[in-house]
Amino acid sequence: MKQNNWFDPFYIFDNLSEEEMQIQKNIREFCDKELRPKVVYNNLNYKFDKKLFQLFGSIGVLGQTMNSHGGADTNNVAYGLTAYELEKIDSSYRSSISVQSSLVIHPISNFGSEEQKDKYLPDLINGEKIGCFGLTESEAGSDPSSMKTTYKKTLKGYVLNGIKNWITNAPIADVFIIWALSENLEKDSIKGFILEKSFSGLSTSLIENKASLKISPTGQIMLDNVIVPLENLLPKTTGWKSVFSCLNKARYGISWGALGAASECWLIAKEYSENRIMFKKPLATKQLIQKKLADMQTEINIALSSCVLTGREIDKNNDTKIAVSILKRNNCKKAINIVRNARDILGANGLLEENHIMRHLVNLETVKTYEGTEDIHALILGSNQTKLSAF
Ligand code: TGC
Ligand code: FAD
Q1: pLDDT tens digits for range 278-329
Q2: How confident is the model at residue 4 (pLDDT cuts 50, 70, 90)?
Q3: Which atom of ligand 2 has the smallest separation from the CA of 373?
């Protein structure tokens, strides 16, 4: 009989395959060496080093489930574990690999032509090129179909006009996946395009003073009569479900990542409470503190189990979009509560940057918002159950 392990009561990590365990170990070592020592400084200074993408590429975490063009060909549980380890350090790092893998490499590999795949995927996978995904606009967030960005067909290709807002990596990107509607803004006319930084009429700006996800550069993309060659249309998109297939993949990674942030803060709070003497005894001897730790352990482990189950179903190519909505909504909500309680256990010390918790807390405000807010996922689940839309 295996011995009970307080950290892994369901034997989740114990039951991973050898390869999954090795990948998790490698990513954890990479994070401890390359990311953890600089994260507090980089966060205070809004600093994202572009060269990190080459490092991410070299350890195989960009497009890691791809089995061509240099992808590491891992399964989806390994991809989840990668997101979990990266977000233990900071949600910004997980965001950068999520966007590149799920929102840039995935649409090119699934909806692109062979020429597009050969041209763009190798450099996106090895980290030489940085990608971004432009769906959201100032007045089209939860409802992207209200977008105003348009394409117009010409003899040579397409002309794009519009402004995308709140786009991860936009200010540092080389490759832009842009979603646009035809000039009459008909919802079903949605098409995806691959744009390059050098295209005339394309410019970006940085959103300054963002109080959350400070390491990750977020910005706007301005498209002023940008001429996009015919061969840069993503030819195999089939309407909105193609757009949403990218979001499903990103939301799955986010579900694991949020648990990474939560686990990190849980363990920081546990250790602190074991060492902090108050009322002449360690805080960890107090029932109220133990209840908080028990709640953290419970929510994290139940959520992790569901993440593994969902990853296994994705690997079987089963439809998991509802499972992913449940996970994205639940794990972000639970993670933010866990991190808030961890902050509480550290008292005033919980407010210090070097204790990491406040940074995770404010980051999770972004994570809870992007890729469908908590309430939008509630409405997705409600309409799926009742077949009645409440949007
Ligand atoms: P609706 O009419 O329900 O659906 C249109 C078509 O799409 C299909 N579909 C899906 N397919 C695959 N996966 C999903 N999750 C799908 N959801 C819907 C659907 O079956 C239908 O197909 P068909 O064949 O009948 O045409 O679409 P709607 O316009 O009513 O939209 C529904 C809603 C509100 C759920 C959707 O707009 C939504 O998810 N809104 C949230 C917006 C959002 O998540 N934006 C994310 C932007 S990217 C980002 O935030 C990146 S953050 C960086 C990072 O990830 O780290
Ligand atoms: P809104 O849609 O205006 O929602 C505001 C509030 O109203 C929310 O609480 C919401 O739940 C609620 N609400 C909305 N509709 C309803 C309804 N029908 N019923 C009840 N309540 C409702 N987008 C990209 O395309 N690419 C990116 O790379 C990207 N990166 C991002 C990075 C960051 C740091 C952030 C913060 C956002 C990013 N986004 C990106 C945008 C993100 O996807 C949107 O912010 C998100 O979809 C929510 O849209 P919104 O901010 O316009 O909020």
Answers
A1: 999 999 999 999 999 999 999 999 999 999 999 999 999 999 999 999 999 9
A2: confident
A3: 11
Closest CA to 65 of 310, 298, 257, 314: 314
Task: Compute, in angstroms, the gap from residue 164 CA to the centroid of ligand 2.
Answer: 13
pTM of the model: 0.98
CB burial string 158-191: b at 16+ within 10 A, e below: bbbbbbbbbbbbbbbbbbbbbbbbeeeeeeeebb
**Residue located nearest, by CA, to atom 40 of ligand 1:** 142
Residue 217 confidence (pLDDT): 98
Q: Ligand 1 centroid vs 346 CA: distance in angstroms?
A: 39
225 with 238: CB under 8 angstroms? no
CB 125 within 8 A of CB 68: no
The encoded tokens of residue 89 equal: 């350090």
Write the burial class of residue 55 (CB in 10 Å: 0-12 exposed, 13-18 middle, 19+ buried). middle
For 175, half-sphere exposure in the C-beta direction (CA atoms, 13 angstrom radius) is 27
For ligand 2, whether the C-beta of 166 sits within 6 Å is: yes
